Amino acid sequence: MGDITVRPYEGPADLRRMQGLVQATWGPSTRPHVGGLAWSRFQHVGREAEWPTALWERDGDTLAWGWAMPPGELEMYVHPERPELADEVLDWFGGVAGGGEFGVTILEGERRLAAALSRHGYRREPADAPFLSHMSRDLRDLPEPEVPPGFVVRHVRGEEDVPERVAVHRSAFAPSSVTEESYRNVMGAWPYRRELDCVVEAPDGRAVSYCLIWLDDANGVGELEPVGTHRDFRRMGLARAASLYALHRLREAGATGAVVRPRGDAGYPVPVRLYEALGFRAHDRTVRYSRAR
To answer: Does position 1 have pLDDT exceeding 50, yes or no?
Structure first.
């Protein structure tokens, strides 16, 4: 067995290695999903220089990775059988991050990682701080999607839908850095499938709501990331319809389950209510640890 080496991220092939580690160790309590990683990396254009990223490898296998985002946030993942590498990732992060505060968000159930953070001087933030709820459901007994008269739900056809697809996202998440260029990058990323990128089309032809699902085909689990509705078409049940349509397509693609990670704190209650109504149930939540530089 060779020694562990640490090297910098060199491009999309390394994102695939990061996703490969997540995919190979996937379980009910796994924090990242291969789809969320692709969305986070490709929804922006020209940000790579701002994101120091490193991989810990042995004999060609990725065992851990760290992704630093300004001003001082770390996304990290460590092979469950190599928890000691968390200390190495945190040491690396301390050397590359800027900002006056360091922050790392993990799941409440990641106790070994929480212990490593404590060893490095991080402290858990208050219980009433914003958090993400990790929710899941199986794909049995899916209701059929329903839309108002004149509306149509369908999947993205291809390049011709990019302008409308970007416009509805930018309205749903204004202000947004997603552009037509960055969305083309998303569409070219693994494991994007246009049949799982679903929109509700208004009678005038505009895309007004959407749900993008990413399928981890090795584990049969899709992640909803993101879901949104144009600000002029909210409270019409369109996000529910887009999500159900996408979940049906996900099941047709061979998946047996789905996950979603909405805000779960009291200050942002609407998304959790939507997913609960769709049959998702929470099984964990995120907690943020922070320390001064």
So the answer is: no
CB atoms within 10 A of CB 115: 13
The DSSP line for 67-97 is: EEETTTEEEEEE-TT-TTHHHHHHHHHHHH-
Q: Name residue, tokens 């949104």.
A: 228
Give the pairing of strands 133-138 and 207-216: unpaired
Instruction: Give, in degrees to the nearest 5, the angle at Cα 234 between 216 and 200.
Output: 50
In this predicted structure, the answer to whether residue 34 has a pLDDT above a threshold of 60 is: yes
Residues in the chain: 293
pTM (2 decimals)? 0.95
Distant-in-sequence, close-in-space partners of 54: CB < 8 Å, separation ≥ 6: 6, 7, 8, 9, 65, 66, 89, 92
According to DSSP, residue 4 is labeled: P
Q: What is the pLDDT of residue 293?
A: 84
- Per-residue pLDDT band for 72 (boundaries 50, 70, 90) equals very high
